[in-house]
Design goal:
Keywords: Cell outer membrane, Membrane, Signal, Transmembrane, Transmembrane beta strand, Transport. Belongs to the outer membrane factor (OMF) (TC 1.B.17) family. It comes from Nibribacter koreensis. This protein has a single domain, classed as Up-down Bundle (Outer membrane efflux proteins (OEP)). By secondary structure, it is α+β, with helices and mostly antiparallel strands. The N terminus is likely disordered. A hairpin with a 7-residue loop joins β5 and β6.
């Protein structure tokens, strides 16, 4: 009779544990499901780093103008109005003396002038092209910012997917430990088990609960971090998709070709060399003459209280041409040209250095990527075996034909296998993301 009661009770407790597990899963599903596409879209729209880089692009676009390059004339309007009050004395040639006390005088000048540098050794054309290259450099920097941000979103998203899988494993372990505590307590109360069995079950349950709480805390902090990257309310709760969708078809040769064409760091290095070349052109232009033309209209009026003429006015056009030719400036021209050539050489060295760095990063990351793909297949098989072993162990435990120690071993084996499997998937996905980011071709 007692044996039948215990069998029925164990069945009921096991079913109740499963119901609690399903209920917890249902509560998790009630949260917002955030897809990877939605997360990336929100980040591209709201991320502060992307907005700041976009503002830099706008400034670079505004700077690309012929006026900023010095190709257009400068037109200025001026007006000057000066007034005087003074005591004046004048002695004429015939000896006559004229005096004025507190005499008022004024001078009024106004006009419009144009000054235009029509030739400066072609420096203005090099400067205009340099502004265009700086705009392209800003676009390369924006691309790098976007790649980095999208990579961070994807890495954090799949970190949450990894932690969700581990949460389920810890939750399963907690449910089983709760069942063991309930069973051990009832067995102890009817005299079928020692107090030690109940205490061991309680310790295991407390341990599993602690692990679950720590995992929940880690999961919540990662949610906050992803919300921060997306620049939305950090207190927003959500769940993510569990599917990692690892791309296992990447090849090193294809990635290397893409990196040379699309990697933002490589692009920026090439653009920096071109900027240095254009700067050298501007320096060499200082050897050539500079020619300016100017014209304008002026009006002036002078009024005085004493003199041969108490009022004079004038107005009219003025125009002219000026030219200057550098002859000697203390060898500074030669020094500037030498420095400009050194900067070009440094820019070329940076290109070679970045190409080598990208090649090394790809080779190292690709090797790690291949290893992680192998680990995913291995840990997937281990996790499946551990799950089967746990199911068999629980069935035997329900029938009373297995010890609690063996149940605990099956529990831990399943949890550890699940954690290793999710870690392997996450690391493989991180490797994929890193490779595509280096190649400048990060796709969802």
């Amino acid at each position: 009779m007692i044996s039948s009661y215990m069998t029925l009770y164990k069945k009921g407790a096991f079913v109740l544990a499963l119901l609690l597990s399903f209920l917890g899963a249902g509560q998790a599903k009630a949260q917002e499901l955030l897809t990877l596409e939605e997360a990336v879209k929100i980040a591209l729209e709201r991320n502060f780093n992307i907005k700041l880089s976009s503002n830099d692009i706008k400034i670079a676009e505004n700077n690309v103008s012929r006026g900023n390059a010095g190709m257009l004339p400068a037109v200025n309007a001026t007006i000057t109005n000066n007034n005087t009050i003074q005591n004046s004395s004048q002695t004429r040639a015939d000896g006559q003396v004229n005096e004025v006390n507190w005499g008022q005088g004024s001078t009024l000048n106004y006009g419009v002038g144009l000054n235009w540098t029509v030739f400066d050794g072609f420096a203005m054309f090099a400067r205009y092209e340099q502004l265009q290259e700086l705009q392209k450099l800003g676009e390369a920097n924006l691309q790098q910012t976007v790649l980095t941000t999208v990579g961070d979103v994807m890495a954090t998203y799949f970190e949450l997917a990894q932690q969700q899988a581990q949460l389920k494993a810890f939750d399963t372990a907690t449910v089983i430990s709760r069942l063991r505590v309930t069973t051990a307590r009832n067995r102890f109360e009817i005299g079928k088990a020692a107090r030690l069995e109940l205490l061991n079950a309680q310790v295991d349950f407390n341990t599993d609960t602690t692990n679950l709480l720590r995992q929940q805390n880690l999961y919540r902090n990662t949610q906050i971090r992803l919300n921060q990257i997306m620049a939305r309310d950090v207190n927003t709760t959500f769940r993510v998709e569990d599917n990692f969708n690892i791309d296992d078809q990447l090849t090193l040769g294809q990635l290397s070709t893409l990196a040379q064409e699309q990697n933002p760091s490589v692009k920026a290095a090439i653009l920096n060399r071109r900027v240095a070349e254009l700067q050298a052109q501007q320096v060499r232009a200082a050897r050539l003459p500079t020619i300016n033309v100017n014209t304008g209209y002026n009006f002036n009026r002078n009024r005085s209280a004493l003199g041969f003429s108490t009022l004079s006015t004038g107005n009219g056009l003025n125009y002219g041409v000026s030219a200057s030719v550098p002859i000697f400036n203390g060898f500074n021209q030669r020094r500037n040209e030498q420095n400009a050539n050194v900067l070009i050489n440094s820019a070329q060295l940076q290109i070679e250095q970045i190409n080598q760095d990208v090649t090394a990063q790809l080779a190292s990351a690709y090797q790690t990527y291949l290893t992680n793909l192998t680990l995913v297949r291995l840990e997937e098989n281990n996790q499946r075996i551990a799950r089967q072993n746990l199911d068999i162990t629980l069935e035997k435990y329900r029938l009373g034909s297995i010890t609690t120690v063996e149940v605990r071993d099956a529990q831990l084996n399943y949890v550890n296998a699940t954690v290793r499997y999710s870690n392997a998937q996450y690391q493989a996905k991180l490797g994929e993301i890193g490779l595509k980011e280096i190649a400048g071709n990060l796709t969802l």
